[in-house]
Amino acid sequence: xxxxxxxxxxxxxxxxxxxxxxxWQVARIVAHLGDGPYIFSGLGLAWLAGWLNDDTTWRWTxxxxxxxxxxxxxxxxxxxxxxxxxxPHPPGEFVAWQYDKYSFPSGHAARLxxxxxxxxxxxxxxxxxxxxxxxxxxxxxxxxxxHYVSDILVGLLVGGVVSGLFLYLFMG
Length: 172
Fold this sequence. Notes:
- The chain is mostly helical.
- It has helices at 3-15, 22-31, 36-52, 56-83, 107-122, 124-143, 149-171.
- The chain is globular, with a radius of gyration of 16 Å.
């Protein structure tokens, strides 16, 4: 085990909470706020609201954010399959999809970082709010023991960079 990997595991162990404690239960709820179905359903509802209001600009903005998050998830999935890092603890009920058995990088952190950058591009105030939520979800993933600290840091980095590049290259 490399020294960096050892430090990562020690930090992650130190930050994780014992299961079934009150703090763990709160972290468990927060850890799920970045689940893909919630994020993509929210974007779908936002797009529908623009369609109902006949707001073409809003619909295009939501579509750009959707594509931005989807691209970040594609990159994360490629990395997950390449690295195949096992989670710190068996994920149990945290795994909804089989590909998610790997921990590196955190898809939740990447998804929310991409969402943050995308939303901040058009709505900076909301970007700060979502960015705070992204950090909370990322921390909760370590607290409940389904991610190492490096998983969430790299997830945040990948999501933010992929999103920033996408928006720069395709949105101007």
